[in-house]
ATP-binding protein
Amino acid sequence: MTSSTEPAVSIRGLSKSYGKTEVLHGIDLEIARGATTCLIGPSGSGKSTLLRCIAFLEEATGGTIHVNGRPLGFEERPDGKRVRLGPQRIREVRSGIGMVFQQFNLWPHMTALGNVTEALVTVRRLSRKNAEERGMAQLRHVGLEARAHHYPSELSGGQQQRVAIARALALEPKILLFDEPTASLDPELTGEVLNVMRKLGEEGMTMVVVTHEIGFAATVGQRIAFLDHGRILLNGTPGEVFSDPRHPRLTQFLETYLDRGAAMLLKPA
Ligand SMILES: Nc1ncnc2c1ncn2[C@@H]1O[C@H](COP(=O)(O)OP(=O)(O)OP(=O)(O)O)[C@@H](O)[C@H]1O
């Protein structure tokens, strides 16, 4: 049983090394249930690595992650030893986590509906009819029912990303992770993707979003974690993190990345 006040994801002392280089240094972070948490920070600060550890696409080198109270991938035994869990326990916890990538990663030879239903049929073992019903419902959710039978090459980048979101939603995740979901899109196409994400947030989906869209983070993120050099320097509500940016690294970062929307928002009256 999970209570509504328990964090959806609880990260303790998480570290990650590539070879001898440690890129995450003892991250502690709680991801609030039913809220949108944005991970922001300079290029190379470790945002994507942290997100990929939460998706278990990368295995952390130290520390633990609990998802809805259950250990993901590794657990710490009472004697302090960190052990890798068996594949079944890993699969069970991972199945509650959905991921949306910067590059959409759609199958080019499948229609939008085919992309959304593929894993439902092959992994979740739904009948084709049930999978298509669920797939159409999710395409409707992202406003793309009319494009269900189009191939990715016939869709705009924004539409392809919305198909990727529908595909993740069809697997009924408890937590949805986004890795720079608008970074590959022309500026005029980012709005439609951000609007879908905003709607999911309003519906109570737990989301973690790596983004350079500071305006989106400031307006839609309920929690903001600012990473720098593999550490979380600031963590709080947008008001707490943005309204008084006295931290020199944050100020420097905002000056570099601030988009127009955020500049308006953060400008003193
Ligand atoms: N597969 C890998 N092998 C070796 N080093 C890696 C690997 N992936 C990431 N790194 C390094 O880890 C550090 C953190 O990278 P990461 O991609 O997590 O940063 P980021 O904050 O998401 O950056 P960006 O905003 O540019 O995407 C960087 O120094 C990067 O070079």
